Amino acid sequence: MKNLSTLFISAALAFTACSPKQENTTVADLNARRDSISNLIETLRADLAQVDASLARLDSTRNFSSVTTLEVVQGSFAHGFQVYGTVASDRSVTLYPEMAGSISKVTVQGGERVRKGAVLVALDAAMAKASLAEVQTQLGLAQTVFEKQDRLWKQHIGSEVQFLQAKTQFESLQKRLATVQQQIGMTNIVAPFDGIVDEVFAKEGEYGAPGMPMLRIVGSGGLSLDMQVPEPYIQRISKGDVVSMNFTAIGLVEKGRVSQVGDYINPGSRTFTVSVDLPNNASLKANMMASVTIQDYQKDEALLIPNRLILQDTKGQDYTYVFIPNGAIGTIARRDLTLGLANDEMTEVLAGIAAGEKVVDRGIRSVQPGEIVKLY
Hints:
Elements: H1 2-17, H2 27-58, E1 65-67, E2 69-71, E3 73-89, E4 92-95, E5 101-106, E6 113-114, E7 119-123, H3 126-154, H4 160-186, E8 188-190, E9 195-200, E10 207-208, E11 215-219, E12 223-230, E13 242-247, E14 252-261, E15 271-277, E16 289-306, E17 311-312, E18 318-326, E19 329-336, E20 338-342, E21 346-351, E22 358-360, E23 372-375
Helix pairs in contact: 1-2, 3-4
């Protein structure tokens, strides 16, 4: 009865407070009346909650919505994002001929291991070798003439012009011989380092020319995974950050650390390059693809809430509902949230809720603030 009388008195006071204002009412009077009404409303709400709680205990026929809850906890939180990368070799080159000519011989096949300096493709060198023989013959004669002129000149026999002509002819043919020998060497495409022939493009009998690929060779040096990362992440990635690489083609998952972060933004794609050194593994091949998860945020004591329990109103405000216990039942309250980063399951809460509060889980989309509910 005491609570009931309080309700009648509060209602009467509220009615009085809400009566039409008189002409001489001041701003101070209105503010005082407003505060009085607000206090009365809060008192009525508290009394109503007590009445509902008493009814819930005494009236077994009254039904309340049932919910489950999860306690807000603090724990370790990590955030990452996914990009794709390509395996690159620090020794992967495509070889081209330095001069034009018919392909006379291909000495290797794809997958074959070769040593540095081995001849891989040979162009027809018949014309160059003919020129070499001609130059060698001319050089022999020029050398004989020069040596005779040199002996005569030392004996002060003959003219200086004859001596200089013989010397010039001899030196000119020496340089020409070196040029022809270099041209003959250019007819052979050799391995620049130890490695494996990845693919052969040349075919015997075809015509080769500068700019036409002959074969590709991959060295036995280290491999790296190169990724093109969107520009917004450039301040969130540092050398040493942990990455998880999934080579789906061979069913291999590897952990690694960022070895290099590029400083250049590609103006076309708005990306920058990030590289990870790969461990020695015979299964990894150049140009192999991998999906990569890069961890860009880590916090040991973060306030966490499951993603599914975060709602958003029409104004874009993120919020959730918490359960305020009152005996066998409880009241629903809304908590507006300030959120941090989110991973696949959890979101970090920066403000709006405290550790230990109980967030509504089952039934969160059907309850309303102030509603009285019971737990399953």
